[in-house]
Amino acid sequence: MANASEVCYDNIGCFSNAWPFWNTFGILPNSPEQNGITFHLYTRINPTNDQVLDPNGSGTSVMSTNFNGAHKTVFIIHGFNGEIDDDWIKLMTTALIQYFDVNVIVVVWTDGANDNYFQAVANTRVVGAVIANMIKLLQRSGGLTLNNVHLVGHSLGAHVAGYVGEIITGMGRITGLDPAGPAFYTANVKVRLDSSDATFVDVIHTDGVLGLQKNMGHADFYPNGGKIQPGCLTDPIAPVYSCAHMRALYYFIESVNPDCKFTSELCQSWDDFKDGNCESCGSGCQEMGYNLAYNADGEYYLRTGQKYPYCDY
């Protein structure tokens, strides 16, 4: 780009629109303040009433919350048009705290995510940098260890998680829930989520239009082939593709329950899966979702139910 430019913000550095960041057509990210980035902590002590964390705060501010550095910490990151009151965020937070004694931190960036789509794409880089600062603060003051960090991002939020992993090496796990496709189809790996962004990266693909249909993690899951989901063609509320795009969220939420199993077969393609040409479950099966074993590696396929509970197939 001949007229490459950049913007710089306090505490997080500078952002250029030079290669490889060409996927926003020259749009640069807005400031943290313009993105309205906030962090909301939930634990078993405060399962419904959040405690707000300041990424630029002091160690004292962390110590005054219920954050427990000895526990696993799960960051939930929404995508385009996401809001803190979205039902799926509440469901995911509740499920995680019900089944596991974890810190759940919901990252909200509604102001930056409700803008023009390509502006929102650009904003993901700033959101990732601010999350990285929060993680560093929790390391310094809260006893957080990187192997206990699990970033869960939906759509654009999956790429936000990737940027966090670019900044902080050694992150424990990133789960991409149908990572956004538009503006990322041909993007360099530095611009999108990929397997180098954490010690373990798993991806659930559910939508062939809004989602990115390519292997991006150590383990990539393609329920029902990964392009359209059962029940979405007849969904009276959500358009067919937004229904499939959102379904990754609900598969993951259900998977938090250890009794709700999404058994998946290691396979080369959806056609091979349908034809029964995959590895047997003796050596080639994994449980898609939260309780996935970190030794998963490759492409996995499975069928789900068309309505809740989706794991009951």
How is this fold's topology laid out?
Blueprint: E1 6-9, E2 13-16, H1 32-35, E3 38-42, E4 51-53, H2 59-63, E5 73-77, H3 87-99, E6 103-108, H4 110-113, H5 117-142, E7 149-154, H6 156-167, E8 173-177, E9 200-204, E10 219-223, H7 240-255, E11 263-266, H8 270-274, E12 285-287, E13 298-302
Parallel strand pairs: 5-6, 5-7, 7-8, 8-9, 9-10, 10-13
Antiparallel strand pairs: 1-2, 3-4, 3-6, 11-12, 11-13
Word description of this protein:
By secondary structure, the protein is α/β, with parallel strands linked by helices. It is built from 8 helices and 13 strands. It has helices at residues 32-35, 59-63, 87-99, 110-113, 117-142, 156-167, 240-255, 270-274, and strands at residues 6-9, 13-16, 38-42, 51-53, 73-77, 103-108, 149-154, 173-177, 200-204, 219-223, 263-266, 285-287, 298-302. The N and C termini lie far apart (50 Å). The mean pLDDT is 94.
